[in-house]
Amino acid sequence: MQPYDIIVIGSGMGGLTFASLMAQMAHKRVLVLEHHFKLGGFTHTFTRKGYTWDVGLHYVGGMNKGTSSRTMCDFVTHSAVKWHKLPGAFEQFVYPDFTFVVTDDPKEYLHDLIQHFPAEETGLRRYFRDVRHVANWCALETWSWSSPGWLAWPLRLAHMRQRTLALMTTKHYLDQRFADERLKALLTSQWGDYGLPPDQSAFAIHALVANSYLQGAWYPEGSAKTIASSMVPIIEEAGGTCLVNHDVVEILVENGSAKGVRVLEKRGKQVEEKTLLAPLVVSDVGAYSTLTKLLPEQVQLPWRLREDLEHMPKGNAPVILFVGLKESPVRLGFHGENHWIFSGYDHDNAQANGLRDGQAMSAYLSFPSLKDPSATQHTAEIISSVDDQTFFQWQNTTWKHRGEAYEQLKADIGEALLSLVERHYPGFRELVAYQEVATPLTFEGFAEQYHEGIYGLPATPERFRRRWFGAQTPVRGLLLTGTDVCSLGIEGAMMGGAFTAGYALGPLGFLRVMSRAQVYSRTLHVRPVPALSRKRVG
């Protein structure tokens, strides 16, 4: 049977955004298949001992009303996601000899930087201009990847002046503009938001992320799970379905065209193989996994694409300590801001970052419960990174079956992260009631991010130079969506879904998508969202 017009593999932000847009704009019946037992990808949540945490959304920039991100988000969720603004002083960059507070006023932010580094005033003013211009270049460049050729070239030419800056590494850009090493470190304190240190990241992605936070940051009221729960009814209203515990193991290809998928449906310990057909298949599990793991062996990819896939850089390897707190962290002076903690100023020195020799050298500290007005239990998250070989010996093991050595390593990581925070904020450890560590294997198992990492394909200069990847693939009827189509993060994945929907809708499709979103925003239409069906979404 072929009851659906489109099959979407993966229910992350990109997949659900695409499905919502196609349901609303083309009245397509979309089947979304999720291998996990919860929908949402990195927007889903989990609960332990009464505490609830987000797995991937920690804060989002660019959600002030009127921005393209907010307009698109409101459209695909029918305004069901309520964005709560973080405190005005929403970031603190913590270094050995001083702490710098970032506010949501770009003029004040620039003024504070000049006060601390007066000799660098000229470079700082130029930096803020370059960040804005290169962020615009990045948006147009990624749009061009999923546009027909006659439109792609004008898009690339529109901001050609910024291309040279955009394709520098972040370190190269900063070395050309500034002399003070502390200032260079300070400006790249948020590099964990895009997963690459300054000597590896493209200035394009640094500018895109830094620009998004110049007006502050937001967090979804009710936690990130409200994002998926708001889009599912929209998809179902058009005749679509979202199914969990459906593991796609192969994309079916016939005469060079995708025809459907082979899927394993899990019901407890029972597994049933099914074949599901649709004229269009869209993958939200990453370009690498889609093209190297899900396509049949007989599908021959172009040699240049095979070369790119074989030499694709591996993504960042994060570890997260999820903490349940006995009482409000306000007692220690926290108010919902983020804390980036560093033991030194050299972000490019692997030995001085992340976890090394049993010690945490740097970490990101966040309090989800202080960001969400509806939270009922207080929580914290401490995030750092590890060498990607740390967990290699457990690569082929499964959740809860990795042995005592793995559990001990997790315990050691948790202790290292707690010790780092305790050194900077005495009394934090006393607040801890529950803790649990997530490793790169956790993300690989639940999110199927086997190569790209949690940020998608690493945002190196080469990624932008070679244009990895747009929505289209060498297989007819198979499209990509999500972060690999646009850029990283919740916003990047959402815009990746919009770009793919635009491509599927034909010439000028993305302009049609944005136009509809803006019309929706102007009407201020808010429709009630029905309760989710437990049968549908698990």
How would you briefly describe this protein structure?
The protein is of the alpha/beta class and 538 residues long.
**What count of domains describes the coordinates?**
3
Number of helical regions: 20
- N- to C-terminal separation? 24 Å
Corresponding CATH architecture of the largest domain: 3-Layer(bba) Sandwich
Name its key features.
alpha/beta, five-stranded parallel sheet, 38% helix, 3 domains, 538 residues, 20 helices, seven-stranded mixed sheet, 20% strand, disordered C terminus, FAD/NAD(P)-binding domain, single chain
Walk me through the structure:
The longest helix is centred in the N-terminal third of the chain and has 25 residues, at 121-145. The chain folds into three domains: 6-44 and 62-79 and 222-312 and 454-537, FAD/NAD(P)-binding domain; 109-215, no CATH class; 318-390 and 392-438, no CATH class. It is built from 20 helices and 21 strands. Strand 1, helix 1 (13-26) and strand 2 form a beta-alpha-beta unit. The chain has 538 residues and is an alpha/beta fold.
Task: Detail the topology: elements first, then pairings.
Elements: E1 6-9, H1 13-26, E2 30-33, E3 45-48, E4 51-54, H2 68-77, E5 83-85, E6 89-94, E7 99-103, H3 106-116, H4 121-145, H5 149-158, H6 163-166, H7 170-177, H8 181-187, H9 203-212, E8 218-220, H10 225-237, E9 241-243, E10 246-254, E11 257-267, E12 270-277, E13 280-283, H11 287-294, H12 303-310, E14 318-325, E15 338-342, E16 355-356, E17 359-360, E18 362-366, H13 368-371, E19 379-385, H14 403-424, H15 428-431, E20 432-438, H16 440-447, H17 461-466, E21 478-480, H18 489-504, H19 509-523, H20 534-537
Parallel strand pairs: 1-2, 1-13, 2-9, 6-15, 13-21
Antiparallel strand pairs: 3-4, 5-8, 6-7, 10-11, 11-12, 14-19, 14-20, 15-18, 16-17, 18-19
Helix pairs in contact: 1-2, 1-10, 1-18, 2-19, 4-5, 4-9, 18-19
